[in-house]
Amino acid sequence: MKISRHAFLRLSGMAFLAGAARKAIGAIGGTRWGMAVDVAKCQKQENCVKCIAACNQAHNVPSIPDRAHEVRWVWRDSFEHAFPEQVDQYSPLRAAPAMLLCNHCENPPCVRVCPTQATWKRQDGIVDMDWHRCIGCRYCMAACPYGSRSFNWMDPRPYIHNPNPEFPTRTKGVVEKCTFCSERLGTGRAPACVEACSEKALVFGNLADPHSPIRELLATRNHMRRKPELGTGPDVFYLT
Amino acid sequence: MRDRGAIYCGLALFLALMTFPAWHNLSAHVTAKGPDVKLPAREKQCVAPLEFMRTSHMKLLIDWRETVVRAGRRDYTAPGGKHYNMNLTLTCLEQCHGAKADFCDRCHTYAAVSSPCWNCHLDAKPLPGQVGQALASVNPRSAQ
Amino acid sequence: MFMFEKAVGGSRRYRLWICALLILMAIGFACYLRQLQFGLAITGLSRDVTWGLYIAQFTFLVGVAASAVMVVLPYYLHNFKAFARITILGEFLAIAAVVMCMLFIFVDMGQPARVFNVLLYPTPHSMMFWDMISLGGYLALNATIALVTLRAEREDVAPPHWIKPVILLSIPWAVSIHTVTAFLYSGLPGRSLWLTAILAPRFLASAFASGPALLILLCLLLARVTRFSAGREAIQKLAVIVAYAMTISVFFVLMEFFTAFYSRIPEHMDSLQYMFVGLDGHARLAPWMWLSSVLAVASLVLLLTPRYRHNHKLLALACGMVFLSLWIDKGIGLIVAAFVPSPLGAVTEYTPSLPEALIALGIWAAGSLILTVLYKIALSVREEPLASAAPPARVEVLI
User: Fold this and answer.
1) How many CB pairs under 8 A join A and B?
2) What's the total number of domains in chain C?
3) pTM for the whole thing?
4) What is the ipTM of this complex?
5) A-interface mutation test, from B85, B88, B114, B122, most A Cβ less than 10 A away
6) Is residue C252 part of a domain?
């Protein structure tokens, strides 16, 4: 098929524009899920782990006693450990509890390195996991700057004490992490941790919508993110 | 023919090994009876035509898996127009086929097929009205 | 076609060696079956330290594989005739090393049955994808080159002319396999010990020191147990290459220390501090790293002094020290220390478990077996009556 240079250039230009337009429309009118953690509200109850318990129950996260092999989707640490460069020695936040989970980054290094796209960034912003495809190379765990990912060093089933029939377990040899409850979002429910928080310290919403509750919170309150200098663009904000 | 003894021994051993499946099965009283599948009690309409499911249910499941996990869509419209929520445990098992020992394992054990699905996906309880069968409820293969 | 029959017969010592390797491989395989059944929990790895002995061995051996270029380049590009007899040894060493690399990656995977997903779902933005491509290609290249040239030598003819571009290709490809392996690590924002532009140059320098050092040791060993002699000039040239490469490698390490400790940025200092002094009271790696440093300095003293370098006994000692020093540095220190401290500042130490070490040993035995068999084939071809004293017609000057 003979095609003139002019026609070819025109065709390629159109194709490029169409592709770019699709991406732009997806970005403008779309969804970008994010979460805000209100630290003051989170501190109200001492040693509270309701969000963690809810997540573990909903997703059949095993409770493994050996710290070396533990699996954590949501976990608790101090602000001092979670924000080492941002919380100085005089700060009142040092001992505050930090509710930690996958940050579902805008620019996730784990997605960049996964050799099979078993972890990928969805259109709605969630960094998802495909446990059928994961080969267990743990490259994503090396790449994550936040320690958000866990590997199944052995069969997790003996450590799941109250299996939830509505969600599968995982098997040995795959990496797992928080998936922003993508299975619940599809049916209009909030993530399990957000529902479980009795102080309403967790706000989940669409960052792409300027009038969403989470955006209004972020516009009016001081907040911080973990390791912002790395350029990962985490979508979990801590309101201080 | 000095090696007569060795040759006859070797021949006998060879014949014994080659016919092993036959005489072992006979002595263990294994019959050629096919898989005894328990059909769903509630649902009478299958998700797809029977012949298609017989030959290609694996492909249907893979398609469902890719649609749910990679595309995030859970709704499936069957050829007849009925809608299903694509979910292995809640729909395939709980809604239709009951516990996998009542349906899936029947043919899989017979055909020596082991599917890794059950390493992660949970089994459902047997359907009401299904009586526990004589077949072993624990399939050693699916317990992998 | 592959002349394997040459590897089957041999002296009693040869057969004992093969048996010993097979036993080690069997033990390693048995341990691997246990790992397949139970999971990677039988290793010493943890949620904080997710890569350990297996990946570290892979990293080190990619360097050894790449080092074949250090004999191929002088001979085929610059007609350095002294390397004529040992290019085949370098190429066979590369083959054995690449196979070991692939085995180490395989045993490290949580779901090894799914390994082909990397090819079924190609992911150009992942360096691991390119690593698989480059390693596979390098294996094919070296296998082709070695077998074609060896076959030609056996038939006492010149190798086919199409082998020339293939050999030329193997030179940049060798550099690329280790650069891609360095890229696995040097682009990760969360691991400060690896996030340095000098990582790929470090990898190449240490590769070009450890690979030829091993090749020298193998040549000296072959001179003892067979009638093969690599020639004094070839060994000395390799020794000079090792000397320069080791000097540059040590220099690069010192550069890392300056940047970290002069800038005093905590996340740059932490991992290095853990390696040599310890962090929060945990210092399991320190004795190893100091040993590596002492061996490096001692080896340089021997290599950079011509009188010692010319003495083959001291040269062998120096090469052994180079190999061991770099094996500790790259094969243990670099990989593990990047995970300390964890992203949340925790210090979790790592020691390989016994099954893990036995699996690693089994893979080293497998690589040694491949190397032994290939060398036996090469030397058997050389020792056939057809061959004259001088090396037969090889691929001549390419530039």
Assistant:
1) 30
2) 1
3) 0.89
4) 0.91
5) B122
6) yes
